[in-house]
From TrEMBL:
Spans traversing the lipid bilayer: 6-28
Protein name (record): Heme exporter protein D
Highest classification ranks of the organism: Bacteria, Pseudomonadati, Pseudomonadota, Alphaproteobacteria, Hyphomicrobiales
A GO CC term attached to the entry: plasma membrane
Function: Required for the export of heme to the periplasm for the biogenesis of c-type cytochromes.
Record keywords, A-Z: Cell inner membrane, Cell membrane, Cytochrome c-type biogenesis, Membrane, Transmembrane, Transmembrane helix, Transport
Amino acid sequence: MSDYAFYIWSAYGAAALAIGALIAHHLLDYRAQRRALQRLEGDAARHGS
């Protein structure tokens, strides 16, 4: 490997962690928004709207 291998692999690792964190945040937010929508739809159905 070259002299810059540590830098390159560190950059790949940091990018992978950042992308993984973004994916995890997106999935958690999606689930929360789906639950909120189901709760709102349930409230609307109970109130006759």
